[in-house]
């Protein structure tokens, strides 16, 4: 059903962007329609979290298993909630001048009413969400003008 894929280059390191996306419990602070987040379990390579989304009169909570492949990928596998399915991934590839971010989301609500409501605004909603992550990176890591190299990764 609704699918969105987007690639863009941001002037941050893969590690910085990975950390931002993996910090699920902070999503309600900056992500539109995310009104709650609860991490149920977490290790270095995975987490299970409940996210609550609110849109107009709708409020739904869903659980996901998130695989963290530092610093290059975040894969989200839907466990339960209001969707028939949800597929989501983030990929971070270092490129000249920053990181190419490859974002993909595909889902379908169980409820036809919810599906119809989100279908009308889906593309704009996802664009707003991706921009919210970009604004969050600016807030956390500062603005980086063109030509300013991103910080080198910390030694392992």
Describe the structure.
Belongs to the ribosome association toxin RatA family. GO terms for molecular function: ubiquinone binding. Pfam families: Polyketide_cyc. This is Ubiquinone-binding protein. The protein has 2 helices and 7 strands, in the order E-H-E-E-E-E-E-E-H. Helix 1 (14-22) crosses helix 2 (112-141). A hairpin with a 2-residue loop joins strand 3 and strand 4 (58-69). It is globular and about 45 Å long. With 156 residues, it is of the alpha+beta class. The N and C termini lie far apart (42 Å). The protein has helices spanning 14-22, 112-141; strands at residues 3-10, 34-42, 46-55, 58-69, 73-80, 83-95, 98-109. Helices cover 25% and strands 46% of the residues.
Could you name the ranges where pLDDT drops below 50 across 5 or more consecutive residues? none
Task: Report the C-alpha radius of gyration, rounded.
Answer: 16 Å
Written as H for each helix and E for each strand, in order along the chain, the element string is EHEEEEEEH
Number of helices: 2
Mean pLDDT score: 88
CATH class: Alpha Beta
Largest sheet: 7 strands, antiparallel
Full CATH superfamily name: START domain
Protein structure class = alpha+beta
**Count of domains:** 1
Got a strand count? 7
What name does the CATH topology carry?
Answer: Alpha-D-Glucose-1,6-Bisphosphate, Chain A, domain 4
Helix % is 25-40%
User: Separation of termini?
Assistant: 42 Å
Strand order of the largest sheet: 1-7-6-5-4-3-2
**Principal-axis shape:** globular
CATH architecture field: 2-Layer Sandwich
Q: Quote the beta fraction.
A: over 45%
Protein name: Ubiquinone-binding protein
Organism: Caldovatus sediminis
GO molecular function: ubiquinone binding
Pfam family, one: Polyketide_cyc
């Amino acid at each position: 059903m609704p699918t969105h894929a987007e690639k863009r280059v941001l002037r941050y390191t893969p590690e910085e962007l990975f950390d931002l996306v993996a910090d699920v419990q902070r999503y309600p602070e900056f992500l539109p329609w995310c009104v709650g987040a609860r991490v149920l379990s977490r290790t270095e390579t995975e987490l299970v979290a409940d996210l609550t989304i609110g849109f107009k009169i709708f409020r739904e909570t869903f659980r996901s298993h998130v695989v963290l492949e530092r610093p290059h990928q975040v894969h989200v596998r839907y466990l339960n909630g209001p969707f028939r399915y949800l597929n989501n991934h983030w990929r971070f590839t270092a490129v000249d001048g920053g990181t190419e971010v490859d974002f993909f989301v595909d889902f379908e609500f169980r409820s036809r009413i919810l599906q119809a409501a989100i279908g009308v605004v889906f593309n704009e909603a996802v664009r707003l969400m991706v921009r919210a992550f970009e604004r969050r990176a600016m807030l956390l890591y500062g603005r980086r003008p063109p030509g300013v190299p991103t910080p080198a990764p910390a030694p392992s």
